[in-house]
Amino acid sequence: MKASAEACANIALVKYWGKRDAALNLPAAGSLSLTLDGLVTRTTVTFGEAACDTLVLGGEPRTGSMLGKAKAVLDLVRQRAGIDHPALITSENSFPTGAGLASSASGLAALAGAAAAAAGLSLSPTELSVIARQGSGSACRSVFGGFALWRPGTRDDGLDSHAVPLFAADHWDLRVVVVLLCDRPKPVGSTEGMLHTAATSPFFEPYLDRVPHDLDACREAVRDRDFDGLRRVAERSCLRMHATMMAADPALVYLQPKSWSVIAAVRAMRDHGLPALFTADAGPNIKVFCPAAVVDEVTARLRAVEGVTDLMVARPGPGLRVSEG
Ligand code: PMV
Which of 69, 104, 109, 156 is the most exposed place for a label (fewest CB within 10 A)? Predict the structure, then answer.
């Protein structure tokens, strides 16, 4: 009753922000992401060894919402396997936890894979994506490598709300430079932020209306390896998401002055003919995508931005990998 799994974080190019069902983590619209190698969570689950569900991440016992998300995944797995043993989860992230680097995506995807295998279940990637989604929405995309699309689905039970693989990791030789401006957990979690935005931002409905068009445009740009097309759709999806949050009452602001300096630097690169695009999630860090051929120059220019000290370079990465024992 023990198994391990590894999953990578993913970064959305068309963002998920808003739920049609908060309990089941059903999204109000679709989203499209790239799974990244180098941002990895490795998790081992053992059933029947601890007295109650226990989560140890990076050597520290975790409680609160982090344990709550893990329990949501464990309960689904236990229900399916017909067991009621408590689980010991030990997990390591290769990158800072909870700072807008999608650690919940890699973490809950790895947990779904490890828990299912430890419970003796042999589930398809689609079934694992449905389970991971209920721990953290974006985790459903980390089950798949490369570019993945989260189909929002229409069913009330959420069984048709999961990611599907679109293009494999080797489809397009991109690099993602993660500009780390903050490694502290975010002050407002994504679920709370989404519910607050939906309840108070007058931009929320118009924002959602445009997502299907962005998904089509993004998919085409990735299919054609059209970097400028990808830049246009990814930056507008990101900025519209942040504009919608900033129009909430009270405003929800994740981007900091340093984030805007990095964004300005990326825009300046393009004026000099250097292809690069920025995106940002529920935190101040900026992720810069570029073709592999220009990554050294992009990285050098980002390092020159005042306040930038820490960079990580990632490549398109694989999906969930499970190992028994
Ligand atoms: O999966 P959650 O609940 O952590 O939400 C993720 C939301 C964003 O990262 C801001 C956007 C996305 O699509 O990943």
Answer: 156
